[in-house]
Specification:
By secondary structure, this protein is α+β, with helices and mostly antiparallel strands. The chain has helices at 3-12, 32-49, 94-109, 125-133; strands spanning 55-59, 67-72, 77-81, 113-117. It has a four-stranded mixed β-sheet, sandwiched between helices.
Length: 136
């Protein structure tokens, strides 16, 4: 990803800052598609540069329909974007949160490392990728 492209994406989402104590109004929230595009672009660049497979909507459990948003199946690292900024999100209900917990527990038992990102920390994907590189 070029620096100009990265800055363009960051400018669209500039209401979200690294400080998690910052209060975000609905008007300030960047669109999820911008966040997911940023994550996707960073992961694609990493995968191409390191000749590693990147999968989207990867079904990791043979007995369930669970899927990871993105994953690096060769090294069993999954990246999940938690869309909790909407009041209609299933992630904010007890049943939905419990379902996610069950999914992540099963993933861990199957040997996966799951990275979870939200609207507040999605830009940390670059730092996470640097740490993943050390696993290769």
């Amino acid at each position: 990803m070029t620096k100009a492209h990265q800055n363009k994406i960051l400018k669209k989402g500039n209401a979200i800052i690294a400080n998690s104590t910052h209060v975000i109004t609905k008007k300030q929230q960047p669109k999820t598609s911008i966040q997911k595009k940023y994550i996707n672009d960073c992961l694609n660049d990493f995968a191409k540069a390191n000749s590693i497979n990147l999968a989207t909507e990867y079904k990791f459990c043979p007995s369930r329909k669970w899927r990871f948003d993105w994953c690096l199946p060769d090294i069993r690292v999954a990246i999940e974007y938690e869309g909790i900024v909407s009041s209609k999100s299933r992630h904010t209900t007890l049943k939905g949160y419990t379902g996610d917990a069950n999914k992540y527990n099963e993933a861990a038992l199957l040997g996966w490392k799951v990275i979870r990102l939200t609207a507040l920390n999605y830009r940390s994907i670059c730092a996470i990728i640097e740490r993943i590189k050390k696993m290769l």
